[in-house]
Write a structure and sequence with these properties.
The chain has 229 residues and is α+β, with helices and mostly antiparallel strands. Helix content is 25%, strand content 28%. The chain has a 7-stranded antiparallel β-sheet with strand order 3-4-5-9-8-7-6, sandwiched between helices. Strands 1-2-10 form a 3-stranded antiparallel β-sheet. Strand 3 and strand 4 form a beta hairpin.
Length: 229
């Protein structure tokens, strides 16, 4: 009986120790477990990435400037008109009563100045044309023609408002007027007009028998220049 009692006591002690060890082990285990740190979101630094830009070349509009080979042109010289200039063979020259025509749309007129200077003459001429011939003046500029002071007037005319240009120069008691107007071209007049004027020279005063208009109002219609519309 005593042995049974001792055995029960030892079993109770052993069970108590086992329970105590178990509890202690669980407590230690819980104390050693560190809860994971709360992960803070890492701020992202925005990195600017340069996007390659494809640069398209800017198209360049080529401006073709006609440069006639004036060295191969013919030379016109007139004692009657007291002038000389070069012109392409394709442009036929013929005379009218009060003018000299080069091709179909270029004309040189020689008029009486009536004692007026260049500025006064051009002002009167333009006033007459705007009132009676429906000219619309686009520009007026001072230039030189054959070494003489000149005035160039660019204008529009007619129902279609075609382009025209006229260059005036006074020499002695005469007014020399070169004109180019839009219309039916026969020898590339728009491109040869400039070089013709650049080659123009005065040789002497024109002969007195040249028929001339008595005033700007009676000047023949200037051949009107290319339709630059």
């Amino acid at each position: 009986m005593k042995e049974t009692t001792h055995l029960s006591v030892w079993r109770l002690v052993f069970s108590s120790l086992l329970i105590a060890v178990t509890v202690l082990g669980i407590a230690c285990a819980n104390s050693s477990i560190v809860p994971p740190a709360k992960a803070e979101p890492t701020p992202l630094r925005a990195t600017a990435v340069a996007t390659p830009v494809k640069i398209e070349p800017t198209p360049v509009r080529a401006t073709v400037v006609a440069t006639p080979e004036t060295g191969r042109w013919k030379q016109f010289s007139s004692k009657k008109y007291g002038v000389e200039f070069q012109y392409p063979e394709s442009c036929k020259i013929w005379e009218q009563d009060e003018s000299l025509n080069v091709g179909g749309r270029i004309e040189l007129s020689i008029l009486e100045s009536e004692g007026m200077g260049l500025s006064e003459y051009v002002t009167k001429f333009v006033k007459n044309k705007t009132e009676q011939a429906d000219w619309t003046i686009e520009s007026t500029k001072n230039e030189t023609l054959g070494g003489q002071e000149s005035r160039t007037v660019e204008y529009r005319f007619g129902g279609q408002k075609r382009f025209g240009t006229a260059t005036f120069a006074v020499r002695g008691d005469k007014v020399y007027v070169w004109g180019l107007t839009a219309g039916g071209f026969t020898c590339d007049e728009p491109n040869v007009y400039g070089p013709i004027l650049a080659s123009f020279r005065f040789t002497k005063q024109p002969a007195t028998e040249i028929p001339v208009a008595s005033s700007p109002t009676s000047m023949p219609s200037l051949p009107m220049a290319p339709t630059f519309e």
